[in-house]
Amino acid sequence: MDTSELFKTLGLDASQLQGGTLAVHSPIDGSVLAKLPEHTASDVDKMVSRAHEAFLKWRTVPAPRRGELVRLLGEELRENKEALGRLVSLEAGKILAEGAGEVQEMIDICDFAVGQSRQLYGLTIASERPGHRMMETWHPLGVVGVITAFNFPVAVWSWNTALALVCGDPVVWKPSEKSPLTALACQALLQRALKKFGDDAPEGLSQVLIGGRDVGEALVDHPRVALLSATGSTRMGRQVGPRVASRFGRYLLELGGNNAIIVGPTADMDMAARGILFGAVGTAGQRCTTTRRLIVHESVADQLVERLKKAYQSAPIGNPLEDGTLVGPLIDEDAYNGMQTALQQAREQGGTVFGGERQLADQYPDAWYVSPAIVDMPGQTEVVCHETFAPILYVMRYQEFDEALAMQNDVPQGLSSAVFTNDLREAEQFTSAAGSDCGIANVNIGTSGAEIGGAFGGEKETGGGRESGSDAWKVYMRRATNTINYSRELPLAQGIKFGDD
Ligand code: UN1
């Protein structure tokens, strides 16, 4: 399928993809895929106002009926899994299997959200007063602003949107400037679902905001955006969080990770090696859950590192659309420069670098392919404590498990973590209150590739937000506590007597 056919399949109108100011490049070869017109900050106000109007109607549509819209979206995604996955590859540079995997994640969250639409449960609470009943009710919250990053250009939107829609909230989405085409494709698929749904869905339930920082800021600051859900760097989150908080809005932040795998002396080395390879090299190291640190027991370290080096050397690097490729390109030149700077700092801090060089520069002079890097470090130095969005795996050795655990926790980020061990004590300690301090703590599974059924997100500089499964839906709703007096008296709580009774 050529690009224009792909655009057509996904409902992208070719005439609207040219003549604008935002050039969209494919990281595969640097070619320009489209030039999109950009919104301005004043458009943001119009869009949010429209979304608010939509909210006033959508909140009264019964939740299971709202779920029907998400079911229809899931159907569109099933039908277009391959095409949308391919566009993800073209625009974000993922290999096809990972592009399709990302769309599968969207389908999964739609299924989850459809079920959730019949389970927006509140509690009943025992009242201390006779003839009284207490309960809590979950109501739609309002307009949800969603800001997403290039690396999961469609799944993160779907985590938010599938839940927001069943919870009764419209969405205004600002995708990364690096991946607006996939956003327009998602919007087109949702429009198809809306057409099938019928006319109880108001206009403006879902809108896409194309542009850079200025429109993002206008969205963040808009008083009618009840929840701002942002995925991206810690630097971005540090600005977004306080700005939303200053207007008493709600925010959900999913920011940087610095995810470690601990490998103990009893670990199954085959499984560990495979888990590390997928975690560190998959998506060319550009997942927020990418394995960036390997903390390995000294008795198995040399053997494991040798094995990883071999696997790294035989992992095919190249065009992600081609069969067999495992490592696609970095998103752009900035990402490449960031990687080289980090490797240089690692050398200065005593590290020994294996790999990390530019690849395929002759064939793709305007694209940024690299061999993934393994860096043997003398300890957890400063560079190791930073998230560099590239395939760099820092290796540190340990003697005692407590030391490994302390090292795992001793970074500012707290997204994902894993231990490979067959020692029950280590596994239990890792997942205990005194274990990993991350939002995700796995045993004998790598750090990336979480299922949608769990709450996704992490602590510390990762921002504290949780999206996707479990009870993450609650952040898209407001909770009302209701006390109903069905007696003929008016007793006050806490036994207070007030006035003449
Ligand atoms: C991200 O990189 O922002 O757990 C999300 C994973 C994926 C999601 C990653 N399910 O790796």
Short account of what is shown:
The chain is of the alpha/beta class and 501 residues long. It is 38% helix and 20% strand.
Described by strand count, sense and barrel closure, the largest sheet is: 7 strands, mixed
Net shape: globular
The low-confidence runs, each spanning 5 or more residues with pLDDT under 50, are none
> Helix- and strand-based class?
alpha/beta
Number of helices: 14
- Strand % is 15-25%
Strand order of the largest sheet: 12-15-16-11-10-18-19
Number of strands: 23
For the termini, the CA-CA separation is 81 Å
What is the typical, i.e. mean, pLDDT?
Answer: 97
Residues in helices, as a percent range: 25-40%
Rg, rounded, reads 24 Å
Ligands bound here? 2-aminohexanedioic acid
Protein architecture, described:
It is globular and about 80 Å long. A seven-stranded mixed sheet has the order 12-15-16-11-10-18-19, with helices on both faces. Strands 7-6-5-8-9 form a five-stranded parallel sheet, with helices on both faces. A three-stranded antiparallel sheet has the order 3-4-23, with no helix packed on it. Helix content is 38%, strand content 20%. It has 14 helices and 23 strands. With 501 residues, it is of the alpha/beta class. The termini are far apart. Bound molecules: 2-aminohexanedioic acid.
